[in-house]
Recover the amino acids of this structure.
């Protein structure tokens, strides 16, 4: 019997893929019914097996095998009806007869029996309106950087999923592959912002993050409270994605504001080291132009910093924690010494930086 | 249903105009206008849905040609979508306009329009546009827009709460970075969202927010709406927030008090435990720890009593409230307690102090002494000072009546304990007949003494018949002055409960009295008050308790 169930679960990724494609143009009323029934069945499997770790694992593994990019895991089964329903809603190719049936089932008018679905969607619409209403223009926030609210929500979802994923997939390489695949779904600047927000959240911990924990209604996250050690692993994974690729890290540091980078550097030592190294590289590419009396870029490569930007970066680092400030200062001093330990400006970029920050 | 079609049709034009007006204006006034109309709009949408639900899409459009315009505009108004169940009804209406077999270009267009509106409402795109930048990311994570908005709303609420808390005026700092107008705007934008559970922390923070200005900065629509939702039990708030609401918005407090009275009048009072339960749920006794709240609630109760001509049911409710208030007040932290004078500013303080003591604070042997003390003070106040205005007399009477527990004990002590009856009788006579312009009170005292002597003579007899109590019974059945009637009923009922001879004929006697006169409510209320007292202090005599329950049962059926 278990083999049958496993075989069925394998079909989920295909089902979801089809629901987003033009293949649905051939669907009629009955096909749609069947698809919705499958979705409900998968949710039922989730409810039955979520407290039984061995079966969970088995189902999760089989699910992952069925995907080219293993993105979906066991928790996906739990929100299948919504995933399917909302995906179908957006697929234009779905013919009218099937679509009408879909609408009826999604929104279930009164008297047609109760279920978590209709409440979930009305709540969704209501919350979307609430998010719009409450997002009033505010005076310049003095809150820690990286806290733009939508970003925070995306980061929270990413973190939740990472924690669930770690439960399912033991090995780090697989997780990294998964993370790459997921982050590719975003335009690169956005991906950077999300990862930065996620790293910031991990260090702020309580408050907003706890507030963001799912409730049972329409967002049945697994109520998983992570411990500090587990958070460390999650952060490690995010950092390996960031630091693993030089171009990517460089783009990351160019893209994000210096205050945010300083904040992250203050909390993650691997990051501060790599960041300082990168700044060093950029700094060493600057040349002094005696005619203009300032440092300029040696090549007009956009992917590097100007003198002013470099100075700003270092200033922000100085405003960080004491440890970070000391670390930065030490690095600058060392570089100054290596460069000849000049005291006069215009000879070493490091001397000048030390004088100005 | 053709007839119902006329009702929404008449207002259809009205609501369409409203929807257009709201869409164009983005001022705070127009937003306040939306908030004011949300309940009626929801009702209208419901009626609209009922009208079109069974017709097809084509018929519906024929009946209401402009329905697309109306629904479309409403779908883009976040106040409407955020309110209560309006979004649900709107989406049902949209479903009705979707046809499974589109036969014309119009129907095809309607279909695609319905879908795009639903996508707007349910996908993780921004409100203003339909671009969904991050939806592939979210679905790649295996989540839906439902998860996304769950987090987003919670984050937004948390961020607002933090902002408000950081900027609380604490008496030292000058205004933080939040202006009063911003807080006011936030309160208006919250109005549709009050029953959304995610918002509770924000509601609480707003209610407790003080910006340092003496004027109220929260909008009155907000305060009213929160109060409504609280009274209908659609939301639950911490006590401090509710008290703050009532302290800053008088109409809400008045509404809450009247709502409590309504509740209590509409349920059958089977026991005072039930009444006490309902009262404690309403949070009013607890709120009354604030003297300002206590005095207003007291006024409202006073008016209710006057309007109902002093029915015993209302009086009993007031007495229970006072007891609960005292319980809360006595349990309060010594530091935060207000002095009694704050609650009863215009009264003779020694009298207040005497009345406020709960019976259980003294040994029972001391009760009659305490009653004499109260009676003497009262007598001095009432008889020696010049009471030219009936209002003053009423105020004193009302004060005493609130602490009716002592009055019940007075009547009981007269029969059970060996007391000097004069002071206690005077007290009871005052309660039942405070006025003395024509010597009514003095006369009542005399009557009371007569009844008392008669009953005391019979107290030790074990074998009594109804005829033996003729003297007392006649005073109830044959008399016009209701105050004498009430007083005698009180004494007689106590006699029946506490004397051995009385037990046997109790049922018969009560039946006779209540059959021939209008006193069943009086007797009933007296009995439930006695039962309530017994439950708290314990009555040793089991036969009395048993008799009491039997009498109550019989009367409950009749009343």
């Amino acid at each position: 019997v278990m083999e049958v169930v496993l075989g069925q679960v394998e079909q989920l990724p295909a089902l979801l893929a089809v629901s987003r494609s033009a293949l649905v143009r051939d669907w009629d009323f009955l096909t749609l019914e069947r698809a919705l029934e499958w979705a409900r069945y998968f949710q039922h499997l989730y409810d039955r097996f979520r407290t039984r770790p061995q079966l969970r694992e088995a189902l999760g593994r089989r699910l992952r095998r069925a995907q080219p990019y293993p993105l979906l895991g066991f928790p996906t089964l739990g929100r299948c009806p919504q995933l399917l329903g909302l995906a179908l809603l957006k697929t234009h190719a779905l013919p009218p007869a099937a679509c009408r049936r879909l609408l009826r089932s999604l929104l279930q008018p009164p008297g047609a029996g109760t279920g978590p679905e209709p409440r979930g969607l009305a709540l969704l619409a209501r919350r979307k309106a609430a998010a719009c209403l409450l997002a009033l223009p505010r005076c310049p926030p003095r809150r820690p950087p990286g806290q733009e609210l939508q970003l925070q929500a995306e980061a929270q979802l990413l973190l939740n999923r990472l924690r669930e994923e770690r439960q399912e997939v033991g090995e780090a390489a697989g997780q990294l592959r998964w993370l790459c695949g997921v982050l590719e779904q975003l335009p690169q600047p956005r991906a950077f912002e999300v990862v930065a927000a996620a790293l910031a959240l991990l260090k702020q911990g309580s408050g907003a993050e706890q507030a963001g924990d799912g409730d049972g209604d329409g967002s049945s996250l697994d109520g998983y409270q992570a411990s500090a050690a587990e958070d460390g692993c999650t952060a490690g994974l995010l950092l390996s994605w960031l630091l693993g690729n030089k171009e990517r890290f460089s783009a990351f540091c160019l893209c994000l504001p210096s205050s945010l980078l300083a904040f992250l550097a203050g909390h993650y030592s691997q990051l501060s080291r790599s960041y300082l190294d990168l700044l060093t590289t950029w700094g060493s590419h600057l040349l002094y132009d005696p005619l203009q009396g300032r440092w300029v870029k040696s090549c007009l490569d956009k992917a590097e910093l100007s003198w002013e930007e470099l100075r700003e970066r270092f200033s922000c680092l100085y405003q960080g924690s004491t440890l970070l400030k000391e670390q930065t200062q030490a690095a600058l001093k060392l570089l100054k010494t290596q460069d000849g330990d000049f005291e006069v400006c215009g000879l070493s970029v490091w001397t000048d930086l030390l004088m100005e920050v | 249903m053709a007839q119902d079609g006329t009702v929404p049709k008449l207002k259809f034009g009205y609501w369409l105009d409203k929807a257009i007006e709201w869409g164009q204006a983005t001022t705070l006034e127009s937003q306040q206008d939306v908030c004011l109309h949300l309940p009626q709009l929801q009702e209208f949408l419901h009626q609209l849905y009922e009208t079109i639900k069974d017709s097809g899409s084509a018929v519906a459009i024929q009946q209401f040609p402009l329905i697309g315009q109306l629904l479309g505009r409403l779908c883009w108004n976040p106040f409407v979508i955020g309110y209560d169940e309006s979004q649900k009804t709107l989406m049902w209406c949209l479903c009705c306009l979707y046809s499974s077999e589109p036969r014309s270009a119009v129907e095809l267009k309607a279909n695609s329009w319905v879908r795009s509106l639903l996508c707007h409402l349910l996908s993780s795109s921004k409100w203003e546009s339909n671009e969904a930048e991050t939806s592939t990311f979210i679905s790649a994570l295996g989540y839906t827009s439902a998860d996304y908005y769950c987090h987003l709303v919670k984050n937004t609420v948390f961020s607002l709460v933090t902002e408000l808390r950081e900027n609380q005026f604490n008496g030292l700092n000058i205004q933080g970075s939040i202006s009063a107008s911003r807080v006011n705007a936030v309160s208006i934008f919250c109005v549709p969202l009050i029953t959304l559970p995610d918002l509770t922390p924000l509601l609480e923070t707003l209610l407790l927010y003080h910006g340092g200005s003496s004027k109220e900065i929260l909008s009155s629509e907000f305060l009213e709406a929160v109060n409504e939702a609280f009274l209908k039990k659609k939301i639950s708030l911490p006590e401090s927030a509710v008290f703050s609401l009532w302290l800053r918005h008088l109409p809400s407090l008045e509404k809450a008090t009247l709502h409590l009275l309504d509740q209590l009048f509409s349920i059958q009072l089977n026991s005072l435990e039930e009444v006490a339960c309902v009262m404690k749920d309403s949070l009013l006794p607890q709120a009354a720890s604030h003297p300002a709240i206590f005095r207003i609630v007291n006024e409202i109760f006073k008016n209710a009593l006057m309007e109902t001509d002093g029915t015993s049911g209302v009086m009993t409710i007031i007495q229970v409230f006072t007891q609960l208030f005292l319980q809360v007040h006595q349990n309060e932290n010594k530091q935060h307690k207000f002095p009694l004078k704050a609650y009863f500013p215009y009264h003779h303080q020694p009298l207040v102090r005497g009345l406020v003591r709960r019976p259980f604070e003294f040994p029972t042997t001391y009760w009659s002494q305490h009653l004499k003390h109260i009676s003497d003070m009262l007598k001095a106040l009432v008889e020696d000072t010049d009471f030219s205005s009936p209002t003053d007399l009423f105020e004193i009477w009302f004060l005493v009546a609130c602490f009716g527990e002592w009055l019940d004990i007075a009547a009981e002590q007269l029969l059970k304990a060996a007391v000097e009856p004069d002071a206690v009788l005077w007290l009871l006579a005052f309660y039942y007949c405070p006025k003395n312009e024509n010597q009514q009170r003095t006369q009542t005292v005399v009557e009371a003494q007569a009844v008392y002597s008669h009953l005391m003579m019979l107290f030790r007899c074990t074998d009594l018949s109804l005829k033996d109590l003729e003297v007392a019974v006649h005073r109830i059945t044959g008399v016009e002055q209701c105050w004498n009637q009430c007083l005698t009923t009180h004494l007689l009922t106590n006699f029946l409960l506490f004397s051995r001879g009385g037990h046997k004929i109790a049922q018969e006697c009560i039946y006779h009295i209540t059959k021939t006169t209008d006193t069943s409510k009086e007797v009933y209320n007296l009995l439930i008050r006695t039962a309530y007292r017994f439950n708290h202090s314990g009555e040793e005599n089991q036969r009395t308790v048993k008799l009491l329950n039997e009498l109550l049962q019989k009367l409950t059926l009749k009343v």
About this structure: Residues 111-118, 139-147, 206-223 of chain A have pLDDT under 50 and may be disordered.
